[in-house]
Amino acid sequence: MKTTPLIGAGLIAVALAGPALAQETTWTGEGAFGAGFTTGNTDTSDYGLGLKLGRQAGPWAVSLEAVAEYAETDGAETKNRMFFSGQVDRDVSDRLYGFGRVSYERDEFSGFDSRAFVGAGVGYRLLTGERTTWAVELAPGVKFDEVRETVLPGPVVVPASTETGVSVIGVSRFAHPFNDSVKLSNDTTVTWADTSTQIDNRLAVTAALGGALSARISYDVRHDTDPPFGFEATDTATRVSLVYAFGE
Fold first, then answer.
1. Which residues, at least 6 apart from 11, have a Cβ–Cβ distance to it below 8 Å?
2. Spatial contact of 16 and 22, defined as CB atoms under 8 Å apart
3. Residue 138: alpha-carbon gap to chain centroid
4. How many Å is the Cα radius of gyration of the chain?
5. What does DSSP assign to residue 130?
6. Which single residue of 48, 147, 235, 242 has CA 20 to 30 Å from 106?
7. Inter-CA distances, 94 with 91, 119, 136, 182, 233, Å
8. Under a CB-based contact definition with an 8 Å cutoff, are residues 105 and 80 in contact?
């Protein structure tokens, strides 16, 4: 089963929902360019581009995210990863909301050709102050893993396969501004399935430079509880980024 058309259709649906749900509002978000050092499956300097978009009208909100990461070492490609996600939220109360989410990832230097998730669930805002915010989300869904061909000792060749199964995703989004210029954020995503569990965490400090520009230093951890043979379970990345905010 090829997941690209499925996830592409889901992201298009989310994108089209924005104008329909928020005809009199504008998109807000940020674009970021970063560089840093990665350890794990690859040890090299890398570059990354990120884009986040959001739109809200009344109880409805739509958010989109895209990430591209690339690296070369001595002229050889050592990292090539793309990630896309889309989510539509519907407030039930000031704290409780429902949502639908799709995500898709391709990573040329992991044991998976692609990974995807489609699901729907509920979220709850634990902290809703003017400064500190914290929301948690939980959603059952379906996870699609396209596993690369693996060569085991022997040698034994395990052919490429597609693993599809029930999954549950849990998300934590925390943000705290130390002052008007410096903000701490920590986003955690846990995607559970019978085959493996993915844990992604990003800790970041963002400092305003003036106008719409900010500087950000972040530390990312990506862990897989059961990676294919020959691949590291954990990747880390420390990156310094220049961020441009728009639409606010």
1. 64, 84, 85, 86, 102, 104
2. no
3. 15
4. 19
5. S
6. 242
7. 7, 23, 14, 27, 39
8. no
**Residues 188 and 169 sit within 8 Å (Cβ to Cβ):** no
Q: For residue 121, what are the CA distances in angstroms to 66, 87, 105, 220?
A: 22, 11, 21, 25
Half-sphere exposure of residue 54: CA atoms within 13 angstroms, side-chain side: 11
> CA-CA distance, 129 to 127, in Å (whole number)?
6
Which position has the token pair 């058309």? 5
- Per the CB < 8 A criterion, the answer to whether 22 and 60 are in contact is yes
For 185-200, b/e burial (b = at least 16 CB within 10 A) is bebbbbbbbeebebbb
Tokens, residue 171: 């998300």
pTM of the model: 0.83
**Which two tokens mark 104?**
């898709």
Q: List per-residue pLDDT tens for the chain, 248 residues long.
A: 444 444 454 554 555 455 445 456 688 999 999 987 667 776 677 788 999 999 988 899 999 999 998 888 777 887 889 999 999 999 999 999 999 999 999 988 777 888 999 999 999 999 998 889 999 999 999 999 888 777 667 777 777 778 888 999 999 999 999 999 999 999 999 999 887 899 999 999 999 999 999 999 999 999 999 887 777 889 888 889 999 999 86
Q: What does the angle CA 228 – CA 40 – CA 44 come to, to the nearest 5 degrees? A: 130
